Amino acid sequence: MNDRDINHLHPDLQPLCRKWLAQCHEQVIDSFVIYTWRSPAEQDALYAQGRTAPGKIITNAKGGQSKHNFTLPDGTPASKAFDFAIRRKDGTLNWSVGSSEWKAAVAIGKALGLIWGGDFRSIIDSDHFELP
Ligand SMILES: [Zn+2]
């Protein structure tokens, strides 16, 4: 099960994530967090996808290299990134990055100063925001 706990985000990212959620919800965009922190072992499993394991390549970050793997010096999970999804009114997930809901959700995140994974040059990561 993916870690979705906002308390496992970096202390600088927690308030931004909560503001992003609140501002999306004010615009009746049903956004929610699907992944916050991940362990280096989980990251290694994702890195294997499309390389030594089935699937397509979704990351160039090995365990410990992803912003999702960040911890505080005392070992507390403190992900510098979160992944999200958007639900339609009928309960299905909206993965149409070109839809008005996605455009608005991305604009809200950028206005809060977050970096959007859809702007990445190597592997486009549209459901990802991270600290600058
Ligand atoms: Zn991510």
UniProtKB/TrEMBL annotation:
- Which residue ranges does the record assign to the Peptidase M15C domain? 63-131
UniProt xrefs under Gene3D superfamilies: 3.30.1380.10
Q: Does the keyword Transcription apply?
A: no
EC number(s) per UniProt?
Answer: 3.4.-.-
User: Which SUPFAM superfamilies does UniProt cross-reference here?
Assistant: Hedgehog/DD-peptidase (SSF55166)
Annotated coiled-coil segments of the chain = none
Q: Name one GO molecular function term.
A: peptidase activity
Tell me the Pfam families matching this sequence: Peptidase_M15_4
Keyword terms, alphabetized: Hydrolase
InterPro entries the UniProt entry points to: Peptidase_M15C, Zn_M74/Hedgehog-like
CDD domains, A to Z = L-Ala-D-Glu_peptidase_like
Q: Which EC class heads this enzyme's classification?
A: hydrolase
Q: What is this protein called?
A: Peptidoglycan L-alanyl-D-glutamate endopeptidase CwlK
Name its species: Limnoglobus roseus
Its taxonomic placement starts with: Bacteria, Pseudomonadati, Planctomycetota, Planctomycetia, Gemmatales
